[in-house]
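User: Please write out a complete single-protein record containing the residue sequence and its fold in token form, without commentary.

AI:
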Amino acid sequence: MDVQGLEAFWWIAKTGSFNRAAERLFLTQPSVTARIQALEKELGQKLFERRPRGVRLTDAGRALLPHAERVLQDIKRARQAMLDLQTASGGTLSVGSALTTSAYLLPEILTRFKARHPKVEVLVHTGRSHQVQQLVLDDTVQVGLVHAPLPAHADIVAYPLSEEQILLVVPPDHPVASRDEVSLEELTQESFITTDRASGYWALVEQWWTSQGFVPHITMELDSIEAAKRMVLCGLGLTLLPQSTVQNEIALKQVVAVPLKNSANLRRQNILIYRRGKIWSGTARAFLRVVEEQFDITLDLDDEPG
């Protein structure tokens, strides 16, 4: 069924006149008549009765009118939805995020984004970095914020956003808290607390320990960074944490970050990933502009890095 014919039908029903409908549609009266004739031919029913002072709907016309209204309203909503996506004035943004990113980096990004685009609905899916990568491949999310290392995939484009040091975190009253630097050899008798040993950043810690020939004395294995921080606050051990996850506690002097000897390369990389060949909506581009500002980078979405 031709949408233009339905639109002409609706305006005639609303105004009671072919001429007035033509004015509303910026068409000639013969053009409107032709559309109605084509619609009536398709339906096999007359839709209007011509009268001296205009037209009146037939029984068939009255039966068609509510359906025509719904179709035209749905089309109007569909067009508005496309416009909202183009202008970032509405629609939905879906973001995948690694677990620590969702807790420590993403909130600030989304606060900036929502301040500019308050009508956009934001959906966040969290998981391990490799799980977020699969969400990107499946188009469940438009972009992902994850950590390196990440398995290479031909259909994934990855942009480095930032790097952060992985820090030795100790209670303020610990003997090494005031030191400018401490070696691993001095920590052989210390009690270490692990966070989530399945996380990518902890794998970096263990690799670094191995490279330094260090075997830590682990007394607690926890599944959350927040729990590990609480244990350190209570003086129950030491741990290693990415800087973004503990910077507030350091600023409040609740814990102390002590530089580790030979740990310059003990760093975690935050990366942005998306599916290669992605066609970007205005809403997604608006989010990426906020990411650019947050990390002081420039993304060239039309010239994908290898």
Notes: Residues 3-87 form a domain with the Arc Repressor Mutant, subunit A fold (CATH 1.10.10.10). The longest strand covers residues 156-170.
